[in-house]
Specification:
It is built from 9 helices and 3 strands. The chain has 211 residues and is mainly alpha-helical. The chain starts with a strand and ends with a helix.
C-alpha cells in the first residue's frame, strides 16, 4: 500500500452465520508507528520472542472492522468516532466509582432492590442535568462540564437539598436551579490543548456528514 487509506469488504463469522463487514486500514504517523514497534519489541523480548516482519509492518496501520455501511459510517470519520468509544465505558465506570452502583451493605432482597433503583434514578437525573449543562456551556463558551466534578458538588449539597425537599419538592427544585449554573462554572473540565475534546470530535464527525 502506497496510500494512507485501505478499505475492502470481508466476511466474518462462520460459514453458517457469515457477517458481511468492511475492513478499514488507516495509516498512522511515522512517530506513532515507531512507538508501536518499540513497544512490540519490548513486549516480545520479555517473552523471549522476536516480532515477525508482518507484525512490525502492521504497526504502520490502525485497523477497524465494522458492519456499518459507508453511507452511515464514512471512512473519513471512523478514527474520530473510534476515539469516542471510551465515553460508553466511562458511563459504567462512573456508575461504579461515583454512584457505587455495584456496592451495597445489605443482603435483604427488597432493601437491595430499593437501593439499586434509587441509584439508577440518581444516575439518570444527574446525567440529564449534566448533558443539559454541558450543551449550554459548549454553545456559549466552548467549554465542557466535568461529570465527576458536578456529581461531587451535588453530593456535597445532598443534605441541604433533602432538607428543602422535606419542605416541598417545589422549594427543593427552585433552590437547586438557583445553584446549578454556579456549580457548572466551578466544574469546568480541564483539557489538553493538543487533544480534541469529545464535543470537538463530534463536531468534526458532523461536519463530514453534512458535506
Amino acid at each position: 500500500m502506497k496510500g494512507n487509506v485501505l478499505q475492502t469488504n470481508v466476511i466474518l463469522g462462520t460459514d453458517s452465520h457469515p457477517v458481511p463487514s468492511r475492513l478499514i486500514a488507516l495509516r498512522v504517523t511515522q512517530q506513532v508507528a515507531n512507538a508501536r514497534r518499540r513497544k512490540l519489541r519490548k513486549e516480545a523480548k520479555k517473552k523471549g520472542r522476536t516480532p515477525s516482519k508482518n507484525h512490525l509492518a502492521l504497526c504502520d496501520w490502525t485497523l477497524f472492522v465494522t458492519n456499518a455501511p459507508s453511507k452511515i459510517l464514512p471512512v473519513n470519520i471512523v478514527r474520530s468516532l473510534y476515539r469516542l468509544r471510551w465515553q460508553i465505558e466511562l458511563v459504567f465506570k462512573q456508575l461504579k466509582s461515583l454512584l457505587r452502583i455495584h456496592s451495597s451493605n445489605t443482603a435483604q432482597e427488597y432493601r437491595l432492590t430499593c437501593e439499586l433503583y434509587g441509584k439508577l434514578i440518581m444516575a439518570v437525573l444527574i446525567h440529564n442535568i449534566h448533558s443539559s449543562l454541558n450543551a449550554d456551556m459548549w454553545n456559549i463558551r466552548g467549554l465542557e462540564v466535568s461529570f465527576d466534578k458536578l456529581y461531587k458538588r451535588i453530593q456535597e449539597r445532598a443534605f441541604s437539598l433533602l432538607r428543602h425537599m422535606l419542605t416541598t419538592v417545589t422549594v427543593a427544585v427552585k433552590q437547586f436551579l438557583l445553584e446549578i449554573n454556579r456549580l457548572a462554572v466551578a466544574c469546568i473540565k480541564t483539557r489538553q490543548p493538543s487533544r480534541k475534546t469529545t464535543l470537538e470530535l463530534l463536531e468534526v464527525s458532523q461536519a463530514f456528514h453534512s458535506r
